[in-house]
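ok so I'm stuck.
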Amino acid sequence: MEYIVISVAALFVSLLTLFSGFGLGTVLMPAFALFFPIPVAIAATAVVHLANNIFKVVLTGRHADWGVVIRFAVTAALAAIQRRGEELAGRAVTIWRR
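replied:
not stuck anymore, here's the structure
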């Protein structure tokens, strides 16, 4: 019975986020946490996020301006790499000062 409740909740929230663009983790994570340990609930929420995003790309991807998507993806990836480098550099300075 609990798997039916979880499946229905995941389907409903995924459909809701298709139109709103947000809320999947906010609603689904607590629902999963009621039935699973927290690490499992986090992993299950991530799997639903991935499946939902793949579904959205398949459903609406042909209408996307792929030039904009590529420019955004490259910029976001470079920013993430830069931020991670800053975090690692900050840790190295902290360790060196000890």
